[in-house]
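## retry 2 of 3
previous attempt timed out at serialization; input unchanged, resubmitting
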Amino acid sequence: MIENKIPIATDEEDRRWNEEFRAKWSGTPYPPMFVTADAVVLHRGKILLIRRAGMPGRGRLALPGGYVEHSELIQDAAVRELIEEAGPASQRGPLQPQFLKDCITGWRLFDDPKRAARGRVITIAYVFDLPDQDKVDVTAGDDAGAADWHEIPSLDTAELFEEHREILQEMVLSRQLRRNGYTPR
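## retry succeeded, writing output
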């Protein structure tokens, strides 16, 4: 589990950052929409989370992910962000993009217009089910201050960044309940 050595942003710091971010985009002819891709990575009954090193949400736990570049496919963005932020590797070396794509078992769109404080963010989250046979180590990179595997039942969702609580609820927790014969209503 990730020990938090990164100070968690106060509500006031997050509010100010979001105000400044929205102000930067206020001169556009249309309100901007941002497309992001997140990686919900499961391995040996645990979920991969990073700890955000910068704003917004500094110090909070989050799924690896980020903005989709104009020239890339959304699925490719999820894989790129996973590699950049968590550097997953087994004893055989870094997990390659095609291998990671082959581990995708599902995806879901999250597009509630009010789900992110920084503005309209449309997220496509992909579930990566990594095979259990090889241990997968992770190393934080890019804008992640830390990366680690977390036990899902003991996860404190209050520590999660913005809308990542909803993504985990929809894509992981309800999925585990269904596997155990329970169907959420």
